[in-house]
Amino acid sequence: MKRIETLLFDLDGTLVDSRRDLANAVNFALESVDQPRQSEEEIVPHVGNGLRILLSEVMGPVPDEMLEIATRSFSIYYDAHCVDHTVLYENVQAVMTGISIDRKIGVVTNKPEAFAQKIIRHFGLSDMIGVIVGGDSLPEKKPHPAPVLKAVRDLGGDVQSAMVVGDGAQDIQAGQAAGLLTCIARYGYGFRSESLTLKPDFQINRFIELKEIMDDHVADQ
User: Fold this and answer.
1) In what order do the strands lie in the sheet with 162-166?
2) Strand, helix or coil at 166?
3) Are the C-beta atoms of residues 124 and 83 closer than 8 Å to each other?
4) I need a surface site. Which of 14, 80, 198, 200 has the fewest CB within 10 A?
5) pLDDT, tens digit (0-9, with 9 covering 90-100), for 137-155
6) What is the spatial distance between Cα 31 and Cα 25, in angstroms, rounded to a whole number?
7) pLDDT tens, position by position, 25-55
8) In this structure, are residues 24 and 116 in contact, taking their beta carbons and an 8 Å threshold?
């Protein structure tokens, strides 16, 4: 039997609470194409599947050129403001520090890679994280397994001793399709109770509960 050696984390809703900054950027994009602003509560349910899908769902059916303008506007604004209000979830820094001592850590997110890198640097997590796979790093995004498999490969890990941790169904689906253990973060804003029908291996209500899983669980060899 061997323990979990590789951890792959989603970013938004798992390591960081980025709702306000995302909503602000979406509203900047909406204004750039003369669409009405929306509330954070209206915008957040669309987060998790990548920038283009986020904007297309929020905007509804629009011409491609309008979506392109909105996407550029979002990117310009978010690049300057992606850490204005974003915060780490409680205990992320401490738990990640402990895990990183003797395990491999990666981030697999549908957020564009440059934004993910900027957020991770801002919170001083770069030295702990061996690879970042963003929504534009490959042709495929989660729930496709390719980003997860790339992260494991780049870390020099083994799918048999790796686990995906995320708050959305796409995280669990990607991990399962890649043959990894999966853990759903119920505290995240991407969590929906329907995701439990996917039967993730573990559930956590607070990030610190991950430490107990890491301490207690061994994966089948």
Assistant:
1) 131-133, 104-108, 6-9, 162-166, 181-185, 202-204
2) strand
3) no
4) 80
5) 999 999 999 999 999 999 9
6) 10
7) 999 999 999 999 999 999 999 999 999 999 9
8) no
